[in-house]
Design a protein that fits this description.
The chain is α+β, with helices and mostly antiparallel strands and 190 residues long. The protein is built from three helices and ten strands; from the N terminus they run αβββββαββββαβ. 27% of the residues lie in helices and 37% in strands. β8 and β9 form a beta hairpin. The chain is globular and about 40 Å long.
Length: 190
């Protein structure tokens, strides 16, 4: 049973990673030269999922994409910003604790990203929603990407996963923005 659960968790994370990468331009990740810097990003509107009972702020000007068949919420930087980045949110039931869920995912990520770097830390939201943050750098297709994955305890046995993907060159620049957006994460009163 534990092996099947780990495989399922690994598949969910892999789907989030693939969905994140698919949002990048078809020509690959845009390279940012040392002479050009993307427009500074600020926090914008609030994104709310009434279906899954949560909300959080998103970067200013970022756009909500129609969800794919997996019903993942996708929020992407507009092309005009010069930033190839997005936030993909998935929700999944898991009977165990949030920490057990994060540990299982971290082990799965370490195996799938053998040459990548995976770092896990506790994360605090303004509303004190239990959360963890995992940072991953890896090569997917021909792109070096950085992903910051936030894990939240949702209503009941639900776990809410927000995967923020950016070119590895921009991960350090965008991580404070992702952190600021995810600090506003809150569960809806039901």
């Amino acid at each position: 049973m534990k092996i099947a659960l780990r495989v399922l968790i690994g598949v969910v994370i892999l789907v989030a990673i693939v969905l994140g990468i698919k949002q990048f331009p078809k020509g690959g990740v845009q390279e940012v030269s040392s002479n050009s810097t993307p427009t500074p990003q600020k926090i914008g509107d609030t994104f709310t999922s009434a279906e899954h009972g949560y909300s959080h702020r998103i970067p200013l000007g970022w756009e909500t994409k129609p969800p794919p068949p997996s019903k993942a919420a996708i929020i992407a930087a507009p092309k005009s910003s010069g930033v190839s980045s997005n936030m993909v949110t998935t929700v999944e039931p898991y009977d165990g604790t949030l920490l057990a869920y994060v540990d299982a995912n971290t082990q799965s990520l370490r195996k799938s990203a053998a040459k990548g770097k995976v770092v896990r830390a506790e994360f605090t939201t303004d509303s004190k929603t239990p959360a963890y943050k995992v940072k991953l750098q890896n090569k997917l297709k021909d792109a070096d990407v950085g992903q910051t994955i936030y894990f939240f305890q949702g209503p009941g046995d639900k776990k809410i996963i927000v995967t923020c993907t950016a070119p590895v060159e921009l991960q350090a620049q965008l991580e404070p923005l992702f952190d600021a957006c995810m600090k506003t994460f809150a569960l809806s009163a039901r």
